[in-house]
Automatic annotation (TrEMBL):
Organism: Sphingopyxis macrogoltabida
InterPro entries in the cross-refs: Calcineurin-like_PHP (IPR004843), Metallo-depent_PP-like (IPR029052), Metallophosphoesterase_sf (IPR051158)
Pfam families: Metallophos
Signal peptide annotation: none
Alphabetized GO MF terms: hydrolase activity
Domain Calcineurin-like phosphoesterase: 53-218
UniProt name for this protein: Phosphohydrolase
Length: 283
């Protein structure tokens, strides 16, 4: 074997090793424990004598093998209960049917771990696009069996909060007008919106105390300098990730717990948001 051929083989072996290491790192990133991010929302006119409430935002759980089997979700739920939230908000995409999945679970298997969530004001869910593409009626049925409240262009009162759930914008199931009408029928309260895609924000008729969303995965795969491959949003990176103010609207967009398309993450760890809502301090 010539010297040049040996050198070429060494380079091929090195590149293969680096590629394997990169994939392993991406998979480790995708399966690590979620980062717990915290924020406070001050509300003018917060009811006198009402203690602040802790809201836990989960999004993009994407139950599927190999990276998010139900057993992993069950373990995460146990950890999140230690945060003692008053209300849990789930911003859609409970399931994944990605082609790279090693196992697709039934609706019952997807939802079962969420029965372990503990919050005095309950668990509220707004469906995502993958939920609609999977088995939406089966998923909703399983959630309702377990006492999870599914909102599809509907609203519900939880303590001093009026929670509106806008159905998924990405798959064309949203109805903002119907959601706000449902909120108005519930009377006075602190208005919040739960939805899968943050792309509804520019179309809101008026600001609410906060909008809770997911869908973007914060890019899921981001590169230094270049940034994310996509945020799957018609507004580009306007609602890419995290805690932001868009005009007069406070918006929280979670990175999610699971993955879409491939079970890899780079520079976008899984996360959840623990948001304390209470008096503004200016009263």
């Amino acid at each position: 074997m010539t010297k040049s051929r040996r050198r070429w083989r060494r380079w091929v072996a090195l590149l293969a090793l680096l590629g394997a290491a990169l994939l392993a790192k991406g998979y480790w990133n995708a399966t690590r424990d979620p980062v717990i991010r915290t924020a406070t929302v001050g509300v003018a006119g917060w009811p006198a004598g009402q203690p602040p409430l802790r809201l836990l935002l989960l999004s993009d759980i994407h139950v599927a093998g190999p990276d998010m089997p139900p057993e992993r979700l069950e373990r995460i739920v146990g950890e999140l209960n230690r945060l003692k939230p008053d209300l849990v908000l789930i911003a859609g995409d409970l399931v994944s049917e990605k082609r790279t999945a090693t196992h697709i679970y039934t609706a019952g298997q997807v939802v079962a771990p969420l029965a372990g969530l503990r919050a005095p004001l309950g668990v509220v869910v707004a469906p995502g696009n993958h939920d609609h593409w999977f088995k939406p009626d089966a998923l909703r049925g399983e959630m309702e069996k377990l006492g999870l409240r599914v909102l599809q262009n509907e609203a519900i009162r939880r303590g001093p909060l009026i929670v509106g759930g806008v159905d998924d914008d990405f798959s064309g199931h949203d109805d903002i007008a119907a959601t706000f009408a449902a909120m108005d029928r519930l009377g006075p309260g602190v208005p919040l919106l739960l939805t899968h895609s943050p792309d509804i924000v520019p179309d809101l008729p008026r600001p609410v105390a906060a909008v809770f969303a997911g869908h973007t995965h914060c890019g899921q795969i981001r590169f230094p300098v270049v940034g994310a491959i996509s945020y799957v949003s018609r507004y580009g990176d306007r609602f890419a990730c995290g805690d932001m103010v868009d005009g007069k609207q406070r918006v929280f967009v979670g990175a999610g717990l699971g993955t879409s398309i491939v079970p890899l993450r780079y520079l976008t760890p899984p996360d959840i948001w623990l948001v304390t809502v209470g008096p503004s301090g200016k009263e």
